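Notes, Module 5: Reading structure tokens.

Key idea: the token line is not a picture. It is a compressed description, and you learn to read it the same way you learned to read a sequence, by spotting repeated patterns. We will look at two proteins. The first is printed below with its tokens.
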Amino acid sequence: MATISIVAVHGLDNNSQRRIIGLGMELQRLLRSQGFGSRAECRVLVVEGRVNVAGKTCVDPFAHFEPAGLSFAVDGVLWNYREFVYLAMSKPAGYECSRRPQYYPSVYSLLPQPLATRGVQTVGRLDQDSTGLLLLSDDGQFIHTFTSPRKRIPKVYEVTTRYKVEDAQVMALLHGVELHDDAQPVEAVACIRLDEKRLRLTVTEGKYHLVKRMIAAAGNRVEALHRIAVGGFSLPLSLPVGHWMWLESPELELLAQRG
């Protein structure tokens, strides 16, 4: 099992942390909240001496620590205590956005186990053959905001088509195309032809296979689909495919932008 090192908060040494009754959270509960197993499993981690506090072994699973600002390392990997987790992943092709994938590996297999254990979910989905920006979180309100059609959060895609993109197809996407299960035409917020067989398409809805169905309704076919932005946040070019990053306040503010 992993060796866990925790850096003390507010300069308190190990004994001081133990003496303050009611301060923060029990260590076993704190570890559980961060995805390091059940409370019993976290208790074993502590009792067996796998937990260090301020560089010293802590064998008391009931020791209390203030979570806010707490930093810790697992197997040399640094972590911060987080009430909620917000992530961006550069999704590769050939992965399903499901905890129970049917034909391809799950995107959750690309995350460290603690993040998967604590209940992080994809914010919407990308098909297994689609790539690009995928948001993940365990904050229900955040997930609702970025999946609700009423919020009209713009999502930007680069689309590679099977056939040459005609002017009439661009105009159809901008003015609205009819989908079989929708009484109202669905419009693209923006549609820019990048070259003969590539478009940059912005939509504000999140219906099933929406972009592929819109392109088909306009008279073409999607060969490749890559999401490059949500709100005002663009997938960083520096983020390798198959890797993820924490979303902090600056990125979350960009995500909330609608125009």
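Here is the second protein, with the sequence above and the tokens below, as before.
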Amino acid sequence: MKKLLSIYIGSFKGLSRSAWLLAIVMLINRMGSMVIPFLGIYMTKALDFNIKQVGIVLMCFGFGSVCGSYAGGWLTDRFGSFKVQLLSLSLAAPLFMIAPYFKTVESLGIMIFVLSAVFDAFRPANSVSVASYAKPENITRAFSLNRLAVNLGFSIGPAVGGFLAGISFNWIFYGNAIAATAAAIVFFLFFHRKEKNNLKALKANPVVVSSHNKQERNPYKDGPFIAFNILCCIFSICFFQLISTLPIFYREVHQLNEHEIGFLMGWSGLIIVLLEMFIVHIAENKLSITKTLVLGTLLCAISYAMFNIHAGVFMLYVTFLVFGLGEMLTLPFMATATINRSTPKTQGAYMGFNSLAFSAANIFSPLLGTNIVGSFGFTTLWWATSAVLACTALGFYFVLKRL
């Protein structure tokens, strides 16, 4: 027991102060994660959209995410991660405030597209910041710390969002706006001096990136990395059923209310908060990135199959435990594989392209998920998702050997 506790505590050691500050900003931002988890329910319950109309609006979210991820990576390489993150957080807040006033499929689709583009420009810039403030040997744990903050926020946000949605769905948008504003202020206070110091240091000692140690590549012409990103996209199409069709599944099949759905999503985040740093620390020392990603993807496949076991709410909590373990062994290591493939000059482009894979999944995930449910039902969706993830695990096994 003492050894396990020592390993757990050791998993948090060696991380820079800046990595912890970035995690605090991310925590504040993600504590406002109220809109996306309840967007599908908001559209069906408050706006009376049918399941296919919900899919169309969520597809607009995906298109916006693609544009935001590409623009965020491009802007980060040109203007730096600080400016991109600050601008993204600052612009997102007013967009969340006005979003409840868009009530038709067309107008809400456009609004969600713009909001998603602005909000997701933050992701590649933030990933570059995490990598730049981490020691090479701690990169995966630095990403895990950031994800820990995301999931701690996500364990709080939906729980609060479920309570606010019970009062009025408008409040989930206002809550997200307040969190984005607070995150922007804290981010500026923490990092504006560091940004000034970095600029002074860069002017005094311009960095020359050597191409002798690592070949400069264009991520959009890097064959093995393109194959890796395709697999990441397929994985994400399955993974994002978590925020598109799963909340509807809880309400329609298990008859859960908004409070119960919020607590179930909060449980998912809490698992990762408690265990991810520990699990990642062990995986880093015991397994290769290839083995870790394959194992994590297979666990996600098993968890989706478990959604077809109808044994009450308790079974949903058990399923999320398995799902959480799979998530811990995949997402941080995908980011590490991407950073390892890039050079300092191309980190923004590589992280932007990888974010693009996840963003593209936001287009296809809700559209495929809602259409499969509408035509064949939830049971078919979960079996199909499980099978696709199993095939994706096999793909990771072969592609990562070339990366």
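Summary for the second protein:
- Residues 201-212 have pLDDT under 50 and may be disordered.
- DSSP finds 17 helices and no strands in the chain.
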